[in-house]
Design a protein that fits this description.
The structure holds three protein chains of three kinds. By secondary structure, chain B is α/β, with parallel strands linked by helices. Chain B has helices at 8-11, 53-60, 83-90, 108-113, 122-126, 132-144, 160-173, 190-207, 218-224, 247-254, and strands at residues 14-24, 27-37, 41-46, 68-73, 76-77, 93-96, 178-182, 210-214, 227-232, 235-240. Chain C has one domain: MetI-like (MetI-like fold), CATH 1.10.3720. Classes of the chains: A mainly alpha, B alpha/beta, C mainly alpha. At the A-C interface, helix 1, helix 2, helix 3, helix 4 and helix 5 of A face helix 1, helix 2, helix 3, helix 5 and helix 6 of C.
């Protein structure tokens, strides 16, 4: 007489199942609750496609003659804001990354202070930073550069700290054993190892910053955003589309530059 | 170089007294080590894994902080040194690692020159402003270990045995008073292991310095060591010439007979 | 200084490389040029520091007295972020699948990829402005904006993840005679699900951040509250709002980490 044993297979343990289902549940509840409370006028929702087509028709054809007058200079300014901002960030981001990396700064205190600055910098959007700096320094490029710089500190600092923590500590140990000063160990042990990651992070952030710089002008912080804002306020949609096209081209250009530099580095 | 008991203290190069280390309170790895080192040549430290050999070596150059005890290098106490004093003492100790620990992205010659970092300012190191004398010495050391033609290559393009030779050149570059080698041959094939031991012995004798070598392979140790220290469970079981080690000693150190065959 | 004395002489292998020197020169030159071109004068910066001092004074202590306004703005931002993320994720599942080159013929995947790329090109603020101009002020514009932003990110990465899967597993399931849906469920999904959760939580986080900002151009949420506070020079209210935003985002990051761990 043969008996078969019914084995029970399940992919996840009970605890895991519960956890997964509760996440799904929370998502569904959040979704339902949000739809109920959000203030959306249904007519506007149904009207949307028609309204958008109307807008796009007003943006065509593009007014190309507008380009050399206002746009070209503004685009150059945008690129400068992005580049200068990214360079400025390094002054703050590098020390904060060193303070945040647990293999370099042993003190818990410095770790949490650095963490605080890095998280705050990331949580405040560059547009909001721009608002802040425009209130302080007035409209113009300074506000833009500082906004980009302050926002990027958190991004670059965090990624750099992670790269520093992944360094092979063996070579660091060997340099310490030769009696090298902590600074020498940093420069000769850590730096050569994070070099590729460092440039990769900076290029990555510069690319994002070009996009961000383009809109800072909407709150007055310089660049093509100012031109965009002015033409929109005057309902000159055909100029708006030229400005948008210019932004599009600059973003693509920046991507091409970044991809090519990456290839040369690797 | 022999010393008589009376003047032993003033001529003792390295002196370890009552060294203890516990990573977890109440569970010491090193339970009181006393060793005096006066002679040149290879001093092999044998013992099973986990017995504290690596901890012992790393306490000497303070890569690990001892819980208790003294480590005197030419009469100066390493266990209490800090900051600049510690670094000045460290540069007198050259260390060779099991995993070579070279800076992979730097060139071979630059790796050798990092042996001088204890003598240079960070600024000079950053700008690679090594003195001509140091550069010449580094090249000569590379020739001595047989790697002169690889000088400008990146360190990670070398084989394991070649990397270890660079590691040795780096350690000797410090012009150290003592060499420490933490299982330098454990990651290498038998033939290369012998080459490395040859190099260590050669340098130790040429420079008249002791080389403390942690080693698993008892046969290899016997072949090159002038003195053997056997450790077991955090204490020194045997300390004397290689001829004096008997199978009984080995059983006490390693436990069990099957591997002796 | 203890030194070994060498007997031979070798040339210094570290002679400054012209490449490195020219890069430093380029960087220095650029700094000088850009500072000039943008007319950055030290006097302006100094003035600004003075203003910064006064502003910081007025920003502290933060004023939470208008907390109802704060709370409604916060709720709106949350609603926008949640709805946009969920709809965006669902749409991205399909769009990503349809733009994977190893699953779909070219005449389907290429236009799909183009559409996704378009979604990514513009900054969410610009997209927000376009939606505000076409569907009016309020959270609807915000939701639509962030759906577009989500698609641009998730669908692209999802497509790439699908393209990287091991086709052997797909073949194996196909060999059992399973239908298309089953193939997707049992061979594609298990491989890419973990990464998919990764990008989805990242995008939820990103949408949360963006939802607090697009209000500046009228697309609903805390951004609008913040903008009006700035315009009225209510700096102590501004700092209260900023603190709320930072707290919200930190909370969002915390939740994302939990979700990621659950689905690992």
């Amino acid at each position: 007489m043969q008996t078969t044993i019914n084995h029970h297979w399940q992919r996840f343990t009970l605890k895991q199942k519960l956890a997964r289902y509760s996440v799904y549940l929370v998502i569904v509840v959040a979704m339902i609750q949000s739809i109920r409370t959000v203030e959306v006028i249904p007519e506007f929702f149904y009207d949307a496609p028609e309204q958008m087509m109307d807008l796009f028709s007003r943006m065509w054809p593009m007014e190309w003659t507008y380009y050399p007058i206002s746009i070209h200079g503004a685009i150059i300014e945008t690129l400068n804001i992005a580049t200068l901002g990214t360079l400025l960030t390094l002054i703050f981001a590098i020390p904060l990354a060193l303070m945040n990396a647990s293999n370099i700064s042993k003190s818990l205190w410095s770790h949490w202070i650095a963490r605080f600055f890095l998280v705050s910098s990331r949580s405040v959007n560059s547009l909001v930073w721009a608002l802040l700096f425009v209130s302080i320094f007035g409209p113009g490029v300074i506000a833009g550069v500082l906004a980009i710089a302050f926002r990027s500190i958190g991004f670059i600092g965090k990624l750099l700290a992670e790269a520093l923590e992944e360094v092979d500590m063996g070579s660091v140990e060997a340099l310490q054993a030769t009696g090298a000063s902590p600074m020498s160990v940093l420069l000769k042990g850590y730096w050569p190892q994070v070099l590729p990651a460092f440039f990769s992070i900076i290029l990555f952030r510069w690319d994002i910053n070009v996009r961000e710089s383009a809109v800072l002008g909407l709150v007055g912080a310089g660049g093509i955003g100012v031109v965009l804002n002015d033409s929109m306020n005057l309902f000159q949609w055909q100029r708006v589309s030229v400005a948008l096209f210019a932004i599009f081209m600059v973003v693509i250009l920046a991507e091409i530059v970044v991809v090519n530099i990456r290839k040369k580095l690797i | 170089m022999t010393t008589t008991a009376g003047i032993a203290d003033t001529q003792t190069l390295l002196s370890i007294r009552g060294l203890q280390k516990e990573y977890v309170a109440g569970n010491p790895i090193l339970k009181g080590i006393d060793i005096d080192i006066t002679e040149q040549g290879i001093i092999a430290i044998i013992g099973p894994s986990g017995t504290g050999k690596s901890t012992l070596l790393r306490c000497i150059n303070r890569l690990i902080d001892p819980t208790q005890g003294e480590i005197l290098l030419e009469q100066q106490d390493l266990s209490k040194a800090r900051g600049k004093q510690l670094r000045t003492l460290r540069r007198k100790i050259g260390m060779v690692f099991q995993e070579y620990n070279l800076v992979e992205r730097l060139s071979v010659i630059e790796n050798v020159l990092t042996g001088r970092l204890g003598y240079m300012s960070a600024w000079k190191a950053w700008r690679r402003n090594f003195s001509q004398e140091d550069i010449n010495t580094a090249f000569e050391l590379l020739e001595a270990v047989g790697l002169a033609e690889h000088a400008k290559k990146r360190a990670d393009s070398l084989s394991g045995g070649q990397r270890q030779r660079v590691g040795i050149a780096r350690a000797v570059m410090q012009n150290p008073r003592v060499l420490l080698a933490d299982e330098p041959t454990s990651s290498l094939d038998p033939k290369t292991a012998v080459e490395i031991m040859e190099l260590l012995e050669r340098f130790a004798l040429e420079k008249n310095i002791p080389a403390l070598v942690n080693i698993h392979d008892v046969k290899l140790a016997r072949r090159y060591a002038k003195r053997m220290i056997g450790m077991s469970d955090g204490v020194v079981i045997y300390d004397g010439p290689p001829e004096g080690i008997t199978d009984d000693h080995l059983k006490q150190i390693y436990g069990g007979e099957s591997w002796l065959v | 200084m203890a030194r070994l004395t060498p007997t031979s002489s070798h040339e210094n292998p570290f002679r400054g490389s012209w490449l490195v020197r020219s890069i430093w020169l380029l960087a220095a030159g650029y700094l000088i040029y850009s500072i000039n071109a943008m007319d950055l004068k030290w006097s302006r910066i100094q003035d600004g520091m003075g203003h910064a001092g006064t502003m910081l004074d007025r920003m502290f202590p933060p004023n939470f007295s208008r907390w109802e306004l704060l709370l409604s703005g916060l709720a709106e931002s949350l609603e926008i972020a949640i709805i946009a993320s969920i709809v965006g994720i669902i749409l991205s599942l399909f769009l990503g699948l349809f733009s994977a080159r190893n699953f779909m013929p070219n005449w389907v995947s290429i236009p799909m990829r183009g559409f996704i790329a378009l979604c990514r090109t513009f900054h969410p603020v610009i997209i927000a402005i376009l939606f505000v101009k076409s569907v009016g002020f309020g959270p609807l514009a915000g939701i639509l904006t962030l759906i577009v932003a989500s698609i641009g990110f998730i669908a692209k990465l999802f497509a790439e993840a699908i393209e990287e899967i091991s086709l052997k597993q797909v073949e194996a399931i196909r060999a059992t005679g399973a239908g298309f849906a089953s193939i997707i469920l049992f061979s594609v999904m298990p491989q890419v699900f973990a990464r998919f959760i990764g990008f989805s939580t990242y995008q939820l986080d990103s949408n949360l951040r963006n939802s607090t900002m697009i209000g500046i151009v009228g697309a609903g949420g805390l951004g609008g509250t913040l903008f009006s506070a700035f315009q009225r020079f209510d700096y102590d209210f501004v700092s209260a709002i900023l603190i709320t935003i930072i707290a919200l985002i930190m909370f969002g990051e915390f939740l994302s980490n939990i979700v990621r761990r659950i689905f690992r």
